[in-house]
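Molecular record:
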Amino acid sequence: MVKRILFAILLVIFALTGRAQLMTEVTNPQNQIKVEVSEAVELMSILSRTAGYQEYCMDLAGQYTKDTEAWFANYKNHPIITYYQDLHTNQGISYDAVMSMAIHLEIVKGKVKFIGEKSDLGKRWEDVDIDPFVEHLNKFYKDTRFHQFFEQHQAFYEEGLKSYETSVMQFFHQDWYSRFYGTEPVEQFRIVVGFTNGGQNYGPSRQLPGQSKEVFSICGYCLNPNTGQPFWDASVLIHEFNHSFVNPLLDNPTNAAMIEKVGRRLLQFSQPEMESQAYKDWQIVVNESIVRAAVYIYICEYGLVNRGTGNLLFEEVWHKGFRWLPELVAALKNYAANRDQYKTLNDFYPEIARCLTEYIIKESERMQKVLQP
């Protein structure tokens, strides 16, 4: 009963929102994007589960969850666990920070190595000494015979990847992004299924020396308790890849200056809902708002409203706290209809700031009116 309730909650969540050793992949002919399983992602996810990180303990992968629990149950007192729990408590290493580390790990000949730049990991890893962490992780990898566990589940991974390919990739149109945003992608898209991640989805990125920036969509894996089949939502993938176009816009100091004030107010307006989603900075709230509005433009353009995403906007507004989303969707529709005037979304950014500022003003006036004696 508990799992059925949890799955129902996940349906709402889904409707809303590395170069590792041994990558199994299925190639999508239309988009040429790999759908992968990463040993490093599973390693970090299972370590987090073993350490009791709640977001990695959803138990939604059926027999795989049972296999994971049985295999790693005897390692809950492994030396890395206390160390890793301290990172959770003192540095906030959880959720996307776990996946950010995962894509910066490479497993070669039974040894885990850190690759890339520490600066790519994000703020929560800034004060963490990476070398001791990797040393602890290697011991966990060896002691638990992790590679053997990963090898034994190759058939399961392959089946999951094929299911994702069939259910999701037919709705993913990579060319839409450059057309809508008016800029060509400078990143390489990567899709990874996180079989231990339950209902959580992440969009980390990495910049390896001498290579193009890689943007990942790490999609969680859940089984429908009624059918026993994987539950996928194309809007999750569509959402994550928007970030590679939206987030850089806020790196522009001019854009940041014009939208910071309203971004902080938006965070205040829905702070409980935002913090429950680990959206604690105004920059995240602004980027998430634009991405979610863009997703709605996408699903309308490709006729996906009747494919389980019809209530997407409603859920975003009332369950996720993005109460300004209808106004922002209307603004992006205006952008899409006037591309002769706005060549790129960066050109339209002042209008986004204006739209959100007007929302804040109207809502503030409405509340003040109610509070008048």
User: Anything to note?
Assistant: Residues 2-220 form one domain. The CA atoms of residues 238 and 261 lie 28 Å apart. Residues 345-371 form the longest helix (27 residues).
